[in-house]
Amino acid sequence: QNLTLVSYSSSGDLEKLTAPDAGGFNVQASGGAITGGASLGQLFFVFQERQYTVYQYSATDNPFSYITTQPYGCNAETTIVEQGGLLWYLANDGSLRKTSGQTDVNVSERIKPFTNKIINGLNSADYYAGTGVTKKPCAYFDEYLNAYRLFYTSTNGTYNDSCLTYFVDSDIFTTCPSTNVLSIASTFNIDGYTAFYGNSDSSGITYSLNKNYSDTSKSGTLDLGWISSGNPRKQIRVQNIEVWYHTQAGETAGDNCD
After folding, report:
1. What whole-number distance in Å separates Cα of residue 111 and Cα of residue 73?
2. What mean pLDDT value characterizes the chain?
3. Are β-strands 162-167 and 147-152 bridged in parallel, bridged antiparallel, or unpaired?
């Protein structure tokens, strides 16, 4: 099995993978197995375990031209999210990064001891074996609050029971519990929801995450916990909050206020 081969179909025919209209190429084997792919406009990114490579697409016989290779891999392709002309992803070294294809920036350096625990020694192979399947981090971009939300497994946990949020405008990180998110996708501006996610239990239920981060099980995700001050030893804990509930028109008071 060739784990470094990229194959592409012919233009306009997704099922045709044979020459001369289709083809393929190999990325550097030293980067490890291919773990995911993404695009930004005409740029095509191939993520591997220990690096990613950027190609320029053009409608020619050889459609992918090499641009650059960056020494940051991604073992959980479910954390790769496109937003605002950037790709956001969780790198193999535990850092949360953003890339334009030309530049790559670590936005989580100041909380490095914390983000290293998210990886917790797991690699791409672990996420496809045994209990590692439910520990694979996943993410989506919250357009409502302009925030990257990363769901991960806490230390000694078995599911993605925690959420790390990076608020882009204020450059602040927060943590909070989550409801065992297995996979998640943004649905901004669809019936008021910001995301739908699959829970890791056996029910097979898909949950909706509202702008106020309540969900159908009434145990919603709230951005409480701690706020990074830039120093992991100096954290600001959120306490003493007020929560206001209201009843939707036509419903009995208190029905949605567990």
Report:
1. 19
2. 79
3. antiparallel
pLDDT at position 246, please? 44
Q: Residues 90, 143: contact at Cβ < 8 Å? A: no
pTM recorded for the entire structure: 0.77
Residue pair 7/22 in contact by the 8 Å Cβ criterion: yes
Dihedral angle, C-alpha 182, 186, 191, 197, nearest 10 °: 0
Which residues neighbour 189 within 8 Å (Cβ) at sequence distance 6 or greater? 143
Spatial contact of 149 and 140, defined as CB atoms under 8 Å apart: yes
Edge-first strand listing for the sheet containing 181-190: 181-190, 193-199, 206-210
pLDDT value for 224: 38
Q: For 208-248, write each residue's pLDDT tens digit.
A: 777 665 444 433 333 333 333 334 444 444 444 444 444 44
Long-range contacts from 155-158, C-beta under 8 angstroms, 24+ separation: 155/117, 155/120, 158/131, 158/134
Transcribe the chain into DSSP letters. --TTEEEEPBTTBTT---TTT-EEEE--GGG-SEEEEEEETTEEEEEESS-EEEEEE-SSSS-EEEEEEES---S-GGG-EEETTEEEEE-TTS-EEEE-SS-EEES-GGGHHHHHHHHTT--TTGGGSGGGGGG--EEEEETTTTEEEEEEPPTT-SS--EEEEEETTTTEEEEEE-S-EEEEEEEEEETTEEEEEEESSTT-PEEEEETT---TTS------SEEEEEETTEEEE--S------PPTTS-TTTT--
